[in-house]
Amino acid sequence: MKHFDVIVVGGGHAGAEAAAAAARMGARVALVSMRRDRIGVMSCNPAIGGLGKGHLVREIDALDGIMGLAADEAGIQYRLLNRRKGPAVQGPRVQADRKLYREAILRLLEQQQGLELIEGEVVDLVEEAGRIGGVDLASGDRLSAGAVVLTAGTFLNGVIHIGDVRRSGGREGDTASIRLGERLRSYDFARGRLKTGTPARLDGRTINWSILDAQPGDDAPVMMSFANRSPKVRQISCGITHTNERTHDIVRRNLSLSAMYGGHIEGVGPRYCPSIEDKVVRFADKSEHQIFLEPEGLDDDTVYPNGISSSLPAEVQEAYIRSIRGLEVVRIIQPGYAIEYDYFDPQALSPGLETAVPGLYFAGQINGTTGYEEAAAQGLVAGSSAAAQVLGRERLRFTRRDSYIGVMLDDLRARGVTEPYRMFTSRAEFRLHLRADNADQRLTEKGFAAGLVKESRRAAFSAKMSAVNALRLNLEEIKVLPAEMRAAGLAAGKDGSRRSLLEVLSYPDVTWDKIYALAPQAESVDPAIRDQVWCDALYAQYLDRQENDAAGLTRHADTPIPGEIDYRALPGLSTELATKLDRLRPASLRDAEGIEGMTPAALILVLAHCRKAEKARAAHG
Amino acid sequence: MGDTIFALASARGKAGVAVFRVSGPMAVAAVGQLCDVPMLRGLRRLVWGEVLDEALVLRFSEGASFTGEEVVELQVHGSVAVIRAVSGALLELGLRPAEAGEFTRRALENGRLDLAQVEGLADLVEAETEAQRRQALRVFSGAIGMRAEGWRAKLIRAAALIEATIDFADEDVPVDVTPEVLELIESLREELSAEIAGSVVAERVRDGFEVAILGAPNAGKSTLLNALAGREAAITSDVAGTTRDVIEVRMDLGGLAVTLLDTAGLRETMDRVEAIGVARALERADRADLRVFLLAEPGEALMMAPRAGDIVVLGKGDLRGEGISGLTGQGVDDLIGQIRAALEERVAAAGVMTRARHRHAMEAALGALEIAENRVRVAGAELIAEDLRQAGRALDVLVGRVDVENLLDEIFSSFCIGK
Questions:
Q1: A596 and A609: one domain?
Q2: In this protein, which residues make up the domain named tRNA uridine 5-carboxymethylaminomethyl modification enzyme C-terminal subdomain (chain A) (predicted)?
Q3: Closest by CA position to A194, among listed A345, A9, A23
Q4: Is there a domain that residue A521 lies in?
């Protein structure tokens, strides 16, 4: 019997990141997946990042994770979403070559010290003295470990629908995995059912590209990883086309044949990723819907038509797709389908994604989320937490104030899910602070302290920060008069007071060219460093305000909250918050502050109670 | 849910009927043990060792009661002995005497009332005049919550428009949401401004209007005050400068709570104490809601000039035959009518917001909206979104929260998201 510290089950995005994170922590890790060549497969759209999601990728990268690195190895089209809006809401996104991405992930995992990739099928979990002690493989081998991270995706009751044709999408029907299903059922975790869909895949050689608009990537591509500066492979464009009234007619006429509308599906689907059936029904007044035609790879003719996922019968899909401009004679490689699956209620998870069964961690779709990035981020959390537990170290903690990862963990634990959970920037109350550009500032040091970030990564970050701080200090020290500002072509106020160039930098419409006139030394600084200084300056005043809101409380952030506190008995606390606090049981005021919906007033109440309890204890000596 | 509590809901002391209220998970079980027949609706005999009293027992089921919990009310005979005996029995049944305001707090916690409604309830209990009663009832029935809900809906809409352009930049959402956002902010600002203006008056209805009586020494101000109050509230004499400090009399003036201020006679004086009195008179009159100028002579000029809406009357009517006299009551009813009319005109503009707390919340929201409006054309969407969040947080103070799920609901129901 082989022994490991952590076993990760599943080689999807959650599994890959979990295994890599646990190994970086110094644990001996096994990643068990059915097929080595399926590790890191992008099962839906061939893209990584986007709004909220790009933020997650940067956070994973800031913690030395692998998703951003692999995405850059495979990046064939870079677009920084919201380029014309402020940096807080800009999301890096890349279209990735499926094969290159898979290969990059595999390579990164193979190179990771302390990580062993094992091909095999996990058929059961091993329980020892009330905690998980390993897994049994179909081969009859047993692997033992201090913790197991299960990233089973749509394993549970997965059912694929194409029209009224349905087949099992998970492995649960296989005799070999019945035991694992029964084992999970025996834990009696609360479950729900979700669904998601994917569009048909098209043969790019049969698309009439010449009559379609092309969408190229950005002129100045922004990489997914902090470690990279430019694309590694050839860059391509996507095509753009639209549905039309004829398309909608075909869909409408055949609605009853759709798995979803024919009543074959009970799961709840995501509202942000509606099928074409949904779009036609819910937005009947729209005469067209945009479709992005995304090539899946440099030497792959498969095209992913983003925007027309469907569970209509294959022949109906062909009819409506062929009604679309440029796709008149397109060949469908594989029809679109809807998949239904079970998830476990994430409200029962610990902040480190441990289940109620000690040593068993869940990450990814099994927790009700959707998306590669959400899965990978959870993988990182579960993998690093599991390793910390086995190694007897402090686990890396996340809060709503420091990361999108913290937002996601708190959302999942505090609210659970009602539709597949996806990250949006609007979920983050501290959005101006939680930016893709400063993910390293927020997390790298912290990750290093927890043992998750390697020395090389930290050194690169430190070098970057010294350059950033040097320029920032420099600009802060240079104070200019309104007259000097006007001479440099900058708008100046009338009050005649001196302003630091750092402050001037945050004004609207200020460009570096104008700053150079007042601080020539800035011109020779690395543009990436200049950008970083600018981003930080831009939101400084808002962040100060938010800090002030919290300032009175930060002094008490480490105040421990007694475990026996009865939140429901705290006068003035809303039932909603009391219920949340009661369930999540934050250990300190800092943890409480990170809970979604927590208000300063409520925190003060909790603080006051802690004080009272402390005094009472002191009085009783 | 907490433990089961009870309290005497009616006033203490001897009365025809006394009402006990019992609330909590054990309410029905506990009172059931006390009644001769456990069906808790009707006339029952309360038995605890011996028969304590006959009581009318009313049961309110969970979700339909004042607190939202199981509630039983006992109407017993209002004697001190009965109250003591029933209290003792309830205690022995393991129930806990309620703390002050605990029933209301439970109603709040169980979502039966929002915070503003609780305030309305407190005002309703305290209401002394008709206008106060009407206003408090309006607040208690949820008028503030309804108003705030309307604003919330608009705020969510505006925020959703902005957020849609941020989070779904790549999708088929309208590119320029500015006109609708501006329109929403503009209408919110107008409504908030109007409500803020109205809240000042509403607060007055709640706390009482201040009406200052001004005039030269010996013009008969104190006599008039006493006539208006119907009692000897102020010392009167024919010595000029009898009143030195400001004397306040609280009264119900045709349904409005009014505090009448009798002030020192206005004149230049060398007497240091009197001078302080005069300064005080001017200061209080300045802040008062309405001033009544009692002239000793027609056309007399005083140290303070009447403002628009103020009332000017000629005094010493008993000597002059015309004008007003506190001594004989001549013209006093007419003056009351004038004061009432002047105040009622203002009350007509009263908003539903009755407290300074409400006004501060609205002012904070208004401030954030003004910043947002100025920014819409020049700054990034993420900053406008931040301002709208601030406005939302300010309105949170009035009712529930602007929740991100509400935002996403609005976005998904309005736009076709999902390429």
A1: yes
A2: 537-608
A3: A345
A4: yes
In 3D, which of B31, B94, B80, B93 has the Cα closest to residue B57? B31
Which residues in A lie closer than 8 A to residue B405 (C-beta atoms)?
Answer: 415
Q: Does B379 touch chain A (CB under 8 A)?
A: yes
Minimum Cα–Cα distance from A85: chain B residue: B380
Mean pLDDT estimate for chain B: 84
Of the candidates A144, A55, A111, the one whose C-alpha atom is nearest the C-alpha of residue A376 is A55
Give the pLDDT score at B73.
93
Tell me if A88 and B172 make a contact (CB, 8 A cut-off).
no
Contacts of B389 in chain A (CB under 8 A): 429
For residue B67, give how far its alpha carbon lies from the nearest alpha carbon of chain A (Å): 13
Asked if the Cβ–Cβ distance from B170 to A508 is below 8 Å, we say no
Query: How many pairs of residues across A and B have Cβ atoms under 8 Å apart?
Result: 95
Give one DSSP letter per residue of A45-96, joined into a string: -SEEE-TTHHHHHHHHHHTT-SHHHHHHHHEEEEEEETTTS-GGG-EEEEEE
Q: What is the CATH number of the domain that holds A562?
A: 1.10.150.570
CATH of the domain at A369: 3.50.50.60
- Across the interface, whether the CB atoms of B380 and A542 are under 8 A apart is answered no
Give the chain B residue whose CA is nearest to the CA of A292. B419
Interchain CB contact of B373 with A (< 8 Å): no
pLDDT band of residue B400 (cuts 50, 70, 90) is: very low
Decide if B417 and A274 are in contact by the 8 Å CB cutoff.
Answer: yes
Which among B166, B171, B407 has CB closest to A85? Answer: B166
How confident is the model at residue A172, as a pLDDT?
46
Tokens 């009927």, residue located? B17
Q: Are A119 and A180 found together in one domain?
A: yes
CB of A151 closer than 8 Å to CB of A34: no
CATH code, residues B207-347: 3.40.50.300
Residues 6+ apart with CB under 8 A from A554: none
Q: Residue range B208-223: average pLDDT?
A: 88
For residues B115 and B112, give the distance between their C-alpha atoms in angstroms, rounded to a whole number: 10
Across the interface, do A279 and B418 touch by the CB < 8 Å criterion? yes
* Position A139 in a domain: yes
**Predicted pLDDT of residue B1:** 46
Query: Are A88 and B379 in contact (CB < 8 Å)?
Result: no
What mean pLDDT do residues B388-415 have? 65
Residue ranges in chain A whose pLDDT is less than 50: 171-173
Residue B364: phi and psi, rounded to 5, are -65, -45
Residue ending a domain, choose from A389, A415, A450: A450
A286 touches chain B (CB under 8 A): yes
Q: Which residue has the higher pLDDT, A115 or B239?
A: A115
CA distance B364 to chain A (A): 15
Q: In the listed set A515, A546, A577, which residue is the last one of a domain according to the structure?
A: A546
- Closest C-alpha among A385, A56, A419, A61 to residue A269: A419
Give the residue from chain A lying closest to B379, CA to CA. Answer: A508
A227 and A139 within one domain: no
Whether A368 and A395 map to the same domain: the answer is yes
Q: Is A146 a domain residue?
A: yes
- What distance in Å separates residue B61's CA from the closest CA in chain A? 20
Domain count, chain A: 4
Beta strands A360-362; A142-150: pairing state? parallel
**Is any Cβ of chain A less than 8 angstroms from the Cβ of B381?**
yes
Asked whether residue A468 falls in the same domain as residue A482, the answer is: yes
Please write the tens of the pLDDT for every residue from B304-317. Answer: 889 888 999 988 87
Q: How far is C-alpha A240 from the chain's CA centre?
A: 26
Whether the predicted pLDDT of B211 surpasses 70: yes
What is the nearest CA distance from B354 to chain A, expressed in angstroms? 21
The structure's pTM equals 0.80
Q: Where in chain B is the domain with CATH 3.40.50.300?
A: 207-347
**Interchain pair A89, B382: CB under 8 A:** yes
When the candidates are 3.30.1330.10, 3.30.1360.120, 3.90.780.10, 3.40.50.2000, the CATH number that belongs to B5-109 is 3.30.1360.120
